[in-house]
Design a protein that fits this description.
single chain, alpha+beta, 28% helix
């Protein structure tokens, strides 16, 4: 569903905007029961808030672009890229393959793999 695709990229743009409060964005767009499994690392919503807050300390800018997607009802599978710079000015480039599930128009679940093609592994560390 294209609506979910647009919604996801609006969320990512807000989430990685240095001027946005990480906790507020996640509480607004991510379901209370949110869980994710990225590169075999599982996090709940509170852990994800802390994770993104730490990531943002090292990321200067980030842009997201979808490559392909399949959608059905409240589920969407996306292949997308993310490119940006860390605070040292070094390039970050990743490809992400992920499955999203929505509930009550909020992100309930993400399961995916992140492949770093350029940059430091700490830029996308999922631990």
């Amino acid at each position: 569903m294209e609506n979910h695709l647009e919604h996801i990229f609006q969320i990512w743009n807000m989430l990685y905007d240095k001027n946005q409060n990480t906790k507020s964005v996640i509480e607004k767009f991510f379901h209370d029961d949110y869980t994710q499994c990225i590169n075999r690392v599982i996090m709940n919503r509170n852990e994800y808030i802390n994770h993104v807050a730490e990531q943002k300390k090292n990321i200067e800018s980030m842009e997201f672009k979808y490559i392909n997607y399949l959608a059905q009802s409240d589920e969407i599978f996306i292949i997308y890229s993310a490119k940006g710079k860390n605070i040292q000015g070094n390039d970050i480039e990743v490809e992400v393959i992920s499955y999203f599930e929505f509930k009550d128009n909020k992100v309930l679940k993400i399961h995916g793999q992140v492949h770093l093609s350029k940059g430091n592994p700490s830029d996308v560390d999922m631990k």
